[in-house]
Specification:
- The chain is mainly α and 502 residues long.
- The strands form two sheets. The chain has a two-stranded antiparallel ribbon with strand order 1-2. The chain has a two-stranded antiparallel sheet with strand order 3-4.
- It folds into two domains: 402 residues, no CATH class; 39 residues.
- Helix 11 packs parallel to helix 13 and helix 13 runs antiparallel to helix 19.
- It contains 20 helices and four strands.
Length: 502
Amino acid sequence: MPEFLRSLLVVLFLATGIFYFAKKYAQPLGLDPKVLQPRITAWYLITCAAFLSPNFWIFAAIAAFVLNRAAKQDKNPLALSFFVLYAVPLFQKQIPGAGIVNYLFDINYFHLILFVIFVPLYLKIRRAKDTAPLGSVWPDKFIIGYVVYSLVLVFFNTTITNFARVAFTQCLDVLLPYYVASRYFRTLNDFADAIQALLIASCIAASIAILEFAKGWLLYSTLAPSFDIFWGYGGYLRRGESLRALASSGQAIVLGYTMAVALGLYWYQAKKHIQQQRSLTWAIGLLLCAGLFAPVSRGPWVGAALMFLVFIFLEPAPLQRLLKLGVLAFIPSLIFLLTPYGAKFINYLPFVGSVDAETVTYRQDLFENSLHVIQNNLWFGSSDYLNTEEMESMRAGANGGIVDLVNSYIAIALSGGLVGLVLFVGYFWACTYRVFFALRHAKGADERILGQALLGTMLGIMFMIYTVSSILMIPVLYWLLGGVCIAYSLMVRNQELFPVNK
C-alpha cells in the first residue's frame, strides 16, 4: 500500500475517534449535533482531497467547493473555519500571472478559508449598521499602523508589481482575519462554539502528534512532494532519541505553539464543565498535554506553564491554590523524576537539560548579535541586515548555514526598527489590556472565565513568539485571537457592563 494512502487511513482513523467522542458527549459539552455533523463531513472531504488529489489545483477547487457549501449551511461560519483550520498543512503554490506578471501571489490552504469564508463575512459585517468601525479601538490603530509601516518599508526596496503583491497579501493575511474575528462574534454562544471547534481540531492534531512521536512516522510528509511543491518544512527532525511530531503544522515548535494555545483556551471549556464531566475534562486536558509534549519544543512548554500561572493568579486566593497544587503534585512528581522517564524529561528541559543545549546558546547569541545590528539602525531597521558581520557570524555551526531568526520580536526590530517593534508589541498589549479591562467589569461567571482564558492565552502567545519566528500557523492564530479579544471586549461593552467611552 502506498505511504500516502496508509497515512490517510491512519489520519481518518484517529480523527474518527475524536469525532465519535465529540458526538457522544455533545450534550454535556454544549455541542450542537446538528451543527457538528456538517463540519465533520467538511473535514473528511477536505482531508481526503488533500491526500488523494493528483495536484494542488484540484485539491484547491474541491476544498473551496466544500468550504463554500459548509459555510452556507453553518450558523457560525467563523467557528467552521476554526474546526477545519488544521486539516491541511500550509504549503503554498504560486498563482500564474497569465503572461502579464510572473505570478499573482502565493496561495495556501488558509487563503482558501479566507476567500471562501472570511471575505463573505467581511462584506456582511461591513453592511451591519451596529458594527464598530475599523480604527475605533486602539488595537485597530496598532495593526493598521503596523501594516502600513511595513508596506512603506517594502515600497522603497522592491518593484511596483511586487509591492502590489505584498500589499494584497498583507491585507489578506493580517487585516482580514483580525477584522472579521473582532467584529463577527456578538454573543457568548458564538465564542463558545468557536472555542469548541478549535479544541476539536486541536484534539485531532494532538492524537496525530502522539502517534507520530510514538511510531516515528510523519503522516503528512508525503503531501507537499505529491503536489510538486518544495516547502522547506515538514521533514523528519529529532531531538535526542525522539522524533519531533508535526501533524499538519509543518514545524515542531509550531505544533507545540498550537497545542499551548489550545490548552489556554481549554481553560474556558474545563472550568464550565469540570463539575459535571470531571473525567472527560481531565481526559481532554491530558490529551492536549500529550500533544504539547510530542513536538518536544521547549518554548511552548514554558508558554503553557506561564498560561497556567496566569489562570491561577486570576482566581481567588491564588497563593493558597499554588501551595495546594504544589503539595498535591510533589509526591507524583518525585516518583516520576526517580524513573528513567523522569531523567529523560529533565534532559529535554531548557537551561538544565543536555539535549540540544546548543539551541539555547544559539538563541542567546542571536539576541546579542541582533542588538548590535538594531543599534546601528535603531528607528527604522534595515532591509539588508542579514548581510551584516554580526548576522553572517550566525551562519556557522549546526544551523545549516542559515540565519534562523527564532524570535519574532528580533525579526521585526531588525527589519523595521523600534517603530515597527512598538507597533507590533502595541497590538498585543492593546488587545491584552482590552480583555483585562473587560474582565474586571464582566458580571456573568461564563464571561469571566472566557476573559481569563483569552487573557492567559494572549500572554502565553506573547512569550512564545519570543522563541520562534512568525511562520506558518503562528501569525494566523495571533491575528485571529487578537480579534477574538476585541470581540470579547466589545461584547462586554455592548452589554453595558462598563462605560461606552472606555
